[in-house]
Specification:
Elements: H1 3-23, H2 33-53, H3 57-81, H4 85-110, H5 124-134, H6 141-166, H7 170-201
Helix pairs in contact: 1-2, 1-6, 2-3, 2-5, 2-6, 3-4, 3-5, 3-6, 4-7, 5-6, 6-7
Length: 216
C-alpha cells in the first residue's frame, strides 16, 4: 500500500471536516451541525475502508461498486435540485462515468475474470450520506453536494490508486488503472466548484487540495 497516499488523503479529509464545521459549507449548513458532523465522520470512515480495499480484491469490488451506486444517485439528485449549470454539468459527467465504471466491473465479475461477489445495495454509510443530501434545504444543497463529492473522491483515489499499485488480481488492477484518471478528474472538478461556491458565499475557507499532487 502506498502509505504516503493514505496519509495525505487522511489529512485532507480531516481538514475538510474541520473546514465544514467552521464554515458549514453553504450558508444554511450552519443550522445543521449534526448532519455536517455525520458527513465528516463518514468521510473519515471511508478512508479506512478504502485502505483495506486497496489490498483486498473482495473489499475493492465491494467498495468500488457501492461507490458507483452512491455517485450515480447523488448526481441524479443534483440534476433534479441544483440551480447551477456547472454543478449540473458535473453531475451529468458523474452519472455517465460511474455508470460506465459500474458496467465494466459487473462485466468482469459476470464473465468470471474476477471471482468476487458484487453488492446488491449500498451500505448504511452511503445511504446516510444520501439522506443528509436529500434533507438539505434549497440554499444548502449545492454546498453539501460538493463537500460530499470532494470527500467521496478522496476516498476513491485511495481505493483505486492503492489497488492499482498493490492489488493482487490482474484484471482488477487493469480496471483500477483505467478508472483512476477519471476519479482524479472528478476530484479536481469538485474542488474547483467548491472553491467557486465558497468565494460566491463570501466564506473564508476552502476545501483541501487533491492528495494526488503529493502522493504519486
Amino acid at each position: 500500500m502506498n502509505r504516503k497516499l493514505v496519509f495525505a488523503a487522511t489529512a485532507a479529509v480531516f481538514a475538510l471536516a474541520a473546514c465544514s464545521e467552521k464554515s458549514g459549507g453553504a450558508a444554511d449548513q450552519k443550522d445543521k451541525p449534526v448532519n455536517v458532523a455525520q458527513d465528516a465522520a463518514g468521510a473519515a470512515t471511508g478512508l479506512g475502508t478504502a485502505a483495506v480495499g486497496a489490498i483486498s480484491a473482495g473489499a475493492f469490488v465491494r467498495d468500488a461498486a457501492i461507490g458507483d451506486m452512491y455517485e450515480i444517485e447523488a448526481a441524479k439528485m443534483a440534476l433534479a435540485r441544483s440551480k447551477s449549470k456547472d454543478i449540473k454539468d458535473f453531475a451529468e459527467m458523474l452519472v455517465k462515468d460511474h455508470t460506465e465504471s459500474s458496467g465494466k466491473l459487473k462485466a468482469l465479475v459476470m464473465s468470471g475474470q474476477v471471482k468476487e461477489t458484487l453488492p446488491t445495495e449500498m451500505d448504511e454509510r452511503r445511504k446516510g450520506l444520501l439522506d443528509n443530501l436529500r434533507g438539505s434545504g434549497g440554499g444548502d444543497f449545492d454546498g453539501r453536494f460538493l463537500k460530499q463529492q470532494t470527500a467521496a473522491h478522496h476516498e476513491a483515489v485511495v481505493l483505486f490508486d492503492g489497488y492499482k499499485a498493490t492489488g493482487g488480481d490482474p484484471a482488477l488492477k487493469t480496471f483500477a488503472a483505467e478508472v483512476s484518471p477519471k476519479i482524479h478528474m472528478h476530484l479536481d472538478m469538485a474542488n474547483k466548484l467548491d472553491v467557486a461556491a465558497v468565494q460566491h458565499t463570501g466564506a473564508d475557507t476552502a476545501p483541501p487540495a487533491s492528495p494526488a499532487s503529493n502522493a504519486q
